[in-house]
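@channel sequence for tomorrow's demo:
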Amino acid sequence: MSRVNIDSQAAKKLGRGIGDRLSAIIDDVAATHGERTVEEIEAELDRRMASAGVTGGSWRGTAEAIAAGETVDLRAP
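structure tokens (generated this afternoon):
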């Protein structure tokens, strides 16, 4: 089960394929974060998102949610 909720506006802006890729990356990082710090999780997200072609913005809030074991909510700016 995914740990990511994408609101309808964000889904519309991202498109189905990108939203699915973001969810997969976040779910994978969340499943493998272990005892990493928020900074380490954020760096991993930055690296993997850049590899997927997603640039700009900050993944700090996402990293904090992953570290806390919470569901990640992606919303359109």
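heads up for whoever presents: The chain has a mean pLDDT of 85.
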